[in-house]
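Exercise 3.2. Students should predict the tertiary structure of the chain below and write it as structure tokens, then compare their answer with the key that follows.

Predict this chain's 3D structure.
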Amino acid sequence: MAYLSMGEAHRRITDYLNRFSDAVFSQDGPSLKQLLSFSSNSPSLLALADALNVFQDANRLIKQSEKYSQYGEIKAQLFRSS
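Answer key:
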């Protein structure tokens, strides 16, 4: 893993959360399936895993945002498993 700044880690996590909430809102099953598939070797999920290693307090980020807080229980569990 290359060096990842806290800012870049925050951006990657926020980007993932935005894509997740957009997929839920638009009822886009294929996109949601891809976003929840942590066993995949996709570059975007590997980038998210790197970001979660750097930015250890992603749960706080979820809970502080009205946009993401309704998914807090789902995302917190998935983030712990990645």
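Discussion points: The chain is about 75% helix and 0% strand. The radius of gyration is 12 Å.
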